[in-house]
Design a protein that fits this description.
The complex is a heterodimer of chains A (294) and B (48). By secondary structure, chain A is mainly α. Chain A has two domains: 7-220, no CATH class; 228-283, 2-Layer Sandwich (Alpha-Beta Plaits), CATH 3.30.70.20. Chain A is 49% helix and 3% strand. Chain A has 16 helices and two strands. Chain B starts with a helix and ends with a helix. The chains are: A mainly alpha (294), B mainly alpha (48).
Amino acid sequence: MGRPRPRSFRRRLVQAAVSIGTNAYLPGFAKGTVYGGGLKAACAPGLNCYACPGAVLSCPIGALQTQAASAAPHIPYYLIGFFLVAGGVLGRFVCGFLCPFGLVQELLHKIPFARKLGTFRGDRPLRALKYVILALFVVLLPLCVDNAAGGGQPWFCEWICPAGTLEGGVPLTLGVPALRRAIGFLFAWKMGILVALALLSAVLYRPFCRYLCPLGAIYALFNRVALLRYRVDEAACTGCGSCAEGCPMALDPRREPNHPECVRCGRCTGLCPTGALSLQGAKPFGPGSTRPPS
Amino acid sequence: MIRGRRFVFSLVLIAGGVCLLALGAAQGQAAEVMQKAVRVCLECIGIG
């Protein structure tokens, strides 16, 4: 019998399986096309560009912008329902386990660098930027600024999204000469964002998730109420601070285990020497509850 | 008690989400999502 695999390894396996599974349409890479089957009516929980040649599911942020940019805008019940279900069950466990672009940033963060940054002056206020991007680039601009055809533009996809550049832009422009010839300022701008975030990822843990991701901003709203969340057993906690010291998002899980900024990497639960910090599943009255099970 | 209430709140959220998903799908919104996703999105890839 071998030693049990550490939690971080199991999480990495899930991340890899989800990233490969949601981009499993291999003919798309060979032909320079995108998957056109019925699965694309469903959204992937994480940020995964539907213009990726391998993508078999839709991007929820891309879909939300499309509905906001429609020539006849309507309340996007389908997407609101999707966010309520995914967020209500998982919260930001989506970010930690199911987001391909999150995995890319984590792998880049493994590149050795003289000094890794945990937090810095201005880090906290900058984290609010993702809510501004959600409101402005995903909802308001697509809804309010019309193009010549009477509809709006997907502003976030067009001007910011590095996942679209990496998963869609790079493989399609490499594989399709006509697209390569159409490259201009916009592509250079988006490549600049992608390269800047890649470099920053080597120094700072998940910079895109911290400051820019509108999908993370949506799931952050659910972290405190999601079925899957962390709990602290006050009786077992010795206050050693190992969890806060090891948190890559520079949070204090002991004080606030379900902080909106927590991407559920699980490092704190592995570091806790007494096991006081743990995952509370769908058990409403588990250990530590003030109400006994009936 | 608080934890129990939170659990119920989570369930209500999720149940509401399922209802909205079904309502949106019935109104053809899933098909709208698909229509956009099955074509190469030029904006997404930075061609404009």
